[in-house]
């Protein structure tokens, strides 16, 4: 019985280690939408830096894990959360512009 319990515990720990971070999930979703990897890494970093931890986590879950449309997700937020999200737009646009310069 101990061996079975330890085996299950080890499997659970391995599964937890293989999970992707919120930043990785957002970056991959962005790349899947056709943006350059460098641009997506920049955008994900901006979101992590400028959004509250709770809103960042929910954004990663909705866009990265659930593959929800960004516009639909933002519309589902409260007005204060929409304003918080809007506060990141200029920095995200800068990421896109700097990514285009290298192309």
Overall number of strands: 0
What global shape is seen? globular
Helix content: over 70%
Contiguous low-pLDDT stretches (5 residues minimum) are 6-15
Radius of gyration: 17 Å
> Strand share of the residues?
under 5%
Distance between the termini: 59 Å
Largest sheet: none
What series of H and E elements makes up the topology?
HHHHHHH
Task: Give the total of domains.
Answer: 1
Secondary-structure-based class equals: mainly alpha
Number of helices: 7
Averaged pLDDT? 83
Write the layout of secondary structure elements.
Elements: H1 2-17, H2 22-32, H3 37-50, H4 53-65, H5 70-76, H6 79-86, H7 89-101
Helix pairs in contact: 2-3, 2-4, 3-7
What would you note in describing this structure?
This protein is mainly α and 103 residues long. It has one domain (20-101). It has seven helices and no strands. Helix 2 (22-32) crosses helix 3 and helix 3 packs antiparallel against helix 7 (89-101). It is globular and about 30 Å long. This is Lipoprotein. It comes from Hyphomonas atlantica.
Describe the structure in brief.
With 103 residues, the chain is an all-alpha fold. The protein has helices at 2-17, 22-32, 37-50, 53-65, 70-76, 79-86, 89-101.
Question: How would you describe this structure in keywords?
Answer:
single chain, 103 residues, mainly alpha
């Amino acid at each position: 019985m101990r061996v079975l319990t330890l085996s299950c515990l080890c499997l659970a720990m391995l599964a937890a280690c293989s999970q992707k971070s919120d930043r990785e999930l957002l970056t991959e979703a962005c790349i899947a939408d056709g943006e350059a990897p460098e641009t997506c890494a920049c955008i994900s970093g901006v979101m992590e830096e400028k959004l509250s931890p709770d809103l960042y986590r929910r954004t990663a879950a909705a866009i990265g894990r659930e593959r929800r449309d960004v516009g639909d997700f933002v519309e589902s937020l409260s007005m204060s959360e929409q304003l918080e999200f809007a506060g990141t737009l200029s920095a995200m646009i800068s990421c896109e512009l700097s990514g285009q310069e290298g192309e």
